[in-house]
Amino acid sequence: SQQGEEDPQALSIQEGENATMNCSYKTSINNLQWYRQNSGRGLVHLILIRSNEREKHSGRLRVTLDTSKKSSSLLITASRAADTASYFCATGAGAGGTSYGKLTFGQGTILTVHP
Amino acid sequence: DGGITQSPKYLFRKEGQNVTLSCEQNLNHDAMYWYRQDPGQGLRLIYYSQIVNDFQKGDIAEGYSVSREKKESFPLTVTSAQKNPTAFYLCASSPGTLPIRTEAFFGQGTRLTVV
Predict the structure, then answer these.
(1) A29-80 residue pLDDT tens
(2) B33 within 8 A of B43, measured Cβ to Cβ
(3) How many CB atoms lie within 10 A of CB A66?
(4) Nearest CA in chain A to B4
(5) Are A92 and B48 within 8 A, CB to CB?
(6) How many CB pairs under 8 A join A and B?
(7) Fewest Cβ atoms nearer than 10 Å: which of A14, A28, A47, B21?
(8) Which of A30, A35, A42 sits opposite B108 (nearest CB)?
(9) CB contact under 8 A, A103 and B104
(10) Which pairing describes strands B10-13 and A109-114: parallel, antiparallel, or unpaired?
């Protein structure tokens, strides 16, 4: 079963616009991570936010985490054509439960940035 | 260079054959993972290993087998019992053990096609 569910499934924007992707999850987590995948390639880690953090920044990326709503968002500001890729959230489970020790991924959001 | 290497990049299997996908890492990571990705889908966990000589089933382990005899190696065998093996297979590793506190590093994937 998928722990994280991303929304929207696909997002198409123009260069310079901001892109926001959302992720919801079901069980308790130790941390939540965002990854990027270019077509046909492996995943690349973007940012990790711990369960006791609410917001984190890295360059043009901003991630928020709301553990009460079991949701996270990834904001890419001033997007570029090179940001075109699939973006996945992944959760590292907290202690206990069947997800302990796993890194579980959502379905992903396909982002297309038009020049 | 440190990293995680998957081979081969492309693999073709005949019906009824077993095939083994290689995954090697020189990052000195304790944990290793195998994921399956179908077109337009997220990643589904097949098997994972937190330490040498130990591994656990993920969400879709049926028709697959693994071994972890060395820290740096985590080969995946797709057996003839796997009825729909055509997919993109991704191997990953992460430092440390439970719980998952850090990012995962991915290989570039192996695309398996049944012919």
Answers:
(1) 888 999 999 998 999 999 999 999 999 999 999 999 999 999 999 999 999 9
(2) no
(3) 11
(4) A42
(5) no
(6) 75
(7) A14
(8) A42
(9) yes
(10) unpaired
